[in-house]
Specification:
Length: 436
């Protein structure tokens, strides 16, 4: 085996090439017998009349030409290997991987890191990959990694990370006080706080594990002890926080700021995220179809959200007199000293206004995002299928809806059965079920 950038890359086995006896059975051919070491990197054995030769191949579709070849040395078919001119199967793999570093550097202009490849290196590479692919969660992960992972595990070479180290880190983080604006709060004590803290650890571990897996894949590491680490169980609970119809009405009546009230109504009528609502323009509403078009969403998949007649009437009134490209829900009432954000909604501003509004409306504190939960819960309680609810919310399937709102389905099912299932007319007794 060999060391590649701090990782132990084990010799990959190929039944045709790994031994002298297996190579002796191969036919003489100018074209090498290839085996893939990693994506775009291969080791080849060219069988000659007297002895064979090892060859490396580097492939990148963006290069011209896309393939590069490098002779490595003579195979040890008839002579003992010396590690320089006569190479065994494992020595050929090691020499090929060393050449791949040079080929990559020539192709991209980037230098592959040598020496110890640490957990921090793996995290940095993962964040760079996420940003390159436009992941919106990259900034949040960067903060969480810096706050919770790198201080404890960042300096450990990746080949020395163990299952116990990761599990000890998870246990410690689950018991640690939650951070509040960069400062530590109180340690979790209640059952719900402990569950919530473990759920947070699971989320961070999911991203951390993805970073380790990417590092292992890109650097040819076959040992992934972290795959044995299990997340905390029993951390997910159904989201039952949603507003009743009377609470929704009370919240709207208590809101004196017209711009924020309009944003609240739009959230209750569509179930959309605050960011999706903030990007809406007049042209996104179709009075003919009675729906709203969300072009940019969290899932990057656009969707049309049908409206109720009441919701459509609200959008008709709200769009009246506006130009096609006008933003539907701008921040217009702004009485704070700092006016740099005038016209746009920030999360901190929405959070501040929601907090004050809940107090005024005598509603338990909730976030704007919980209007989305309210919308979903209302649809499910009305008997609308999980499939259609998922479509309205912009989910790819029903998994998220089942996970967070599945507990409501039993109530909706019972109501639908009693309202829509036919009476069979086969029993004329006067007995009445308990609770009927």
């Amino acid at each position: 085996m060999e060391t590649l950038g701090g990782l132990v890359a084990r010799t990959k086995i190929d039944t045709q090439l790994h031994s002298r006896s297996s190579r002796a059975k191969l036919a003489i051919d100018k074209e090498p017998y290839w085996m893939t070491l990693e994506k775009g990197r291969a080791l080849g054995y060219r069988k000659g009349k007297t002895s064979g030769e090892w060859v490396a191949r580097y492939y990148d579709p963006l290069l011209k030409p896309s393939k590069r070849y490098q002779p490595l040395g003579t195979a040890d078919d008839y002579a003992d290997p010396n590690g320089v001119t006569i190479l065994s199967f494992s020595e050929a793999q090691a020499k090929a991987r060393e050449w791949f570093k040079l080929a990559y550097q020539e192709a991209t202009g980037e230098t592959i890191k040598t020496g110890k490849f640490t957990v921090k290196d793996a995290i940095d590479a993962y964040l760079e990959d996420r940003r390159r692919h436009g992941a919106k969660t990259a900034d949040r992960m960067h903060y969480e990694f810096n706050a919770h992972v790198i201080p404890h595990l960042g300096d450990i070479p990746l080949e020395r990370i163990t299952r116990k180290r990761i599990e000890d880190w998870m246990d410690g983080l689950a018991k640690a006080p939650a951070r509040r604006r960069g400062q530590e709060g109180a340690a979790p004590s209640t059952e719900d706080e402990i569950r919530s803290r473990k759920a947070t650890v699971n989320r961070i571990w999911t991203s951390f594990k993805a970073a380790l897996n990417l590092a292992a894949k890109e650097r040819g590491c076959s040992s992934t002890v972290w795959s044995e680490v299990r997340a905390f169980r029993g951390t997910q609970v159904a989201r039952i926080r949603f507003l009743s119809l009377e609470e929704q009405q009370r919240l709207i009546r208590a809101c004196e700021a017209e711009d924020f009230q309009a944003l609240l109504k739009a959230g209750l009528y569509t179930g959309a995220r605050e960011g999706e609502l903030a990007r809406l323009t007049t042209r996104d509403f179709s009075p003919e179809r009675k729906d709203v078009f969300f072009e940019k969403t969290k899932s990057r998949k656009s969707r049309h959200a049908p409206l109720t007649d009441e919701g459509a009437a609200f959008f008709v009134d709200h769009t009246r007199g506006k130009g096609a490209s006008d933003v539907l829900f701008p921040r217009t009432i702004y009485d704070r000293k700092d006016k740099r954000n005038m016209g746009g909604w920030s999360r901190s501003e929405i959070s501040r206004m929601m907090k004050g509004l809940c107090v005024k409306a005598e509603v338990d504190p909730l976030k704007f995002h919980e209007l989305r939960h309210t919308y979903a819960s209302t649809l499910i309680n009305a008997g609308i299928s999980l499939f259609h609810v998922a479509q309205q919310l912009g989910h790819r399937d029903t998994k998220m809806v089942e996970k967070h709102y599945g507990h409501l389905c039993q109530t909706a099912l019972a109501q639908a059965i009693r309202q829509k299932a036919p009476n069979l007319g086969i029993h004329s007794g006067s007995g009445q079920a308990s609770g009927a």
